[in-house]
Amino acid sequence: MSLDEGHWSRTATEWLAWARTPNHDAFWAYRDSLVAFIGRGAGDALDVGCGEGRVSRVLKDCGYRATATDPVEAFVSAAEQAGSADEYRVATAANLPFANETFDLVIAYNVLMDIEDVPMALREIRRVLRSTGSLVISIVHPFADRGRFAGPEADAAFVVQDSYFGRKRFEVVAERDGLQMHFAGWSQPLENYMAALEGAGFAISALREPLPAVTSAFTHLEQWTRIPLFLWLKARALVL
């Protein structure tokens, strides 16, 4: 079991509570923008690192036939119990149990930060993606990952605490409304992701730094209207 699989296996119960509490985490403040970014479509879509299944449900809402995969069996079971997708597999991003060129769309939503070998995962995603297909990626913005706001105020200064460059392991504990979640993964600069995409045969076709919908449930996200919390990419396979 890899480092990332072990972490998410240990924290599966925490994540299920964290992710399934309505309007609890940042996902819900960005969901409508994510639907618009993916866009309406048809065909076969793969959710890599599906967690409890909420992105698979977005794919179905967008019109796709969704397959949900995750290396953590508890997550795949939870996704299936919620009717999140049309098919389910327990699998790592680096070893997807599908034939070449199976999917019209692959999404890796906030999962590449958790993967030890991103280049290998992207090569495997490229293998199962049709030559006419698209890859959608969400990551925590590499700049936001290397700093913190100085306080809770909406206009608090954002302070970069470490060098932007280099690959660094992180482990943080988030607490909100009585729930706790242990996050762990790797922080690395945008150039690293671009190099991995290029090496896997992808070219970027769209980039977004989305803004949260700051409603009464998400006033704490107002700071992130000044600094981007997430980075979204669309990529297409290069046909040589």
Write the layout of secondary structure elements.
Elements: H1 3-10, H2 12-20, H3 27-38, E1 44-48, H4 54-61, E2 65-70, H5 73-81, E3 87-90, E4 103-109, H6 118-128, E5 129-140, E6 147-149, E7 158-160, E8 168-176, E9 179-187, H7 190-200, E10 202-208, E11 230-237
Parallel strand pairs: 1-2, 1-4, 2-3, 4-5
Antiparallel strand pairs: 5-11, 6-7, 8-9, 10-11
What does it look like?
- With 240 residues, this protein is of the alpha/beta class.
- The chain has a single domain, classed as 3-Layer(aba) Sandwich (Rossmann fold), CATH 3.40.50.
- It has seven helices and eleven strands.
- The strands form three sheets. It has a seven-stranded mixed β-sheet with strand order 3-2-1-4-5-11-10.
Radius of gyration: 17 Å
Mean pLDDT: 94
| Low-confidence spans | none
The CATH superfamily appears as: Vaccinia Virus protein VP39
Shape: globular
**Helix count, per DSSP?**
7
Helix content: 25-40%
Structural class: alpha/beta
Largest sheet: 7 strands, mixed
Overall number of structural domains: 1
